[in-house]
Amino acid sequence: MRLFFALWPDVDVARQLTQLARRLNLQTRSRWIDPKNYHVTLAFLGEVSAADLAVLQQIGRSLRAGQFTVRFDSIEFWRESRVVVAAARAAPPGLLDLWRKLNEAIGLPREPLRAHVTLARKVTQAPVPQAMSPVVWPVTNFRLIRSDSGAVESAYTVLDTWSLLDEIRNP
Ligand code: 2AM
Q1: How far apart (Å, rounded) are the C-alpha atoms in residues 5 and 25?
Q2: pLDDT tens digit string along 92-139?
Q3: How far apart are CA 90 and CA 72, in angstroms?
Q4: Looking at the DSSP assignment, which residues form a beta bridge with residue 85?
């Protein structure tokens, strides 16, 4: 099974991201991501065995990190991967803390964190820049997700959700 840890938006944040995506004029060949699939990848594991799944669940269960808020304030076209994303120009300390702890526990080599939500794939031309209101996303939990390839878009199944501690909130 293919697994990853991610942040998943609540209905309100998903609605704001959808509004942002709708305002982008992309070519018709681009493929919009279904809003129910919006997420921020924290750590991508790739193919793992059933035995590894138990280890990952234990990591998620024992991880202690505080809640935080991320401000998605930039629409970016990433030419190499042909995606348009909503990105956070600054990663709040709480997000960095969660991401570091998670990647250290898994033992993954850490690439620089670029917190983003992919809004569209198969994009070959940058969207026309326009003013945007930032999407403010209060993060209270993180999830372990299974990804199954689908005909059009991957199907995501939530395997586990763990709460973040509410005594620390980094604006
Ligand atoms: P994304 O976060 O930029 O959209 C599930 O496949 C998620 O993991 C997707 O959201 C995807 O990118 C991310 N992902 C897929 N393959 C990856 C890889 N090889 N390395 C890092 N992230 C990957």
Answers
A1: 30
A2: 999 999 999 999 999 988 788 999 999 999 999 999 888 899 999 999
A3: 9
A4: 76, 118
Length of the chain: 171
Taking the model in full, what pTM does it have?
0.94
CB 15, CB 102: distance < 8 Å: no
Q: H or E stretch including 131?
A: none
Pairing, β 141-148 against β 40-47: unpaired
**CB within 8 A of 53, min separation 6: which ones?**
1, 3, 159
Please count the helices (runs of H) and the strands (runs of E) in the chain: 3, 11
Please say whether the beta carbons of 17 and 9 come within 8 A. yes
d(CA 36, CA 85): 15
Which residue, by CA, sits nearest to atom 11 of ligand 1?
A: 41
Nearest 5°: phi and psi at 159? Answer: -90, -35
Q: Is 111 exposed, middle or buried (0-12, 13-18, 19+ CB in 10 A)?
A: exposed
Question: Closest Cα to atom 14, ligand 1: which residue?
Answer: 44
- State the amino acid at position 145 in one-letter form: I
Distance 2 CA to ligand 1 centre (A): 10
User: Could you tell me where the DSSP H helices lie in 7-164?
Assistant: 11-22, 50-62, 93-106
Ligand 1 close to Cβ of residue 44 (< 6 A): yes
Distance of alpha carbon 119 from alpha carbon 4, whole angstroms: 18
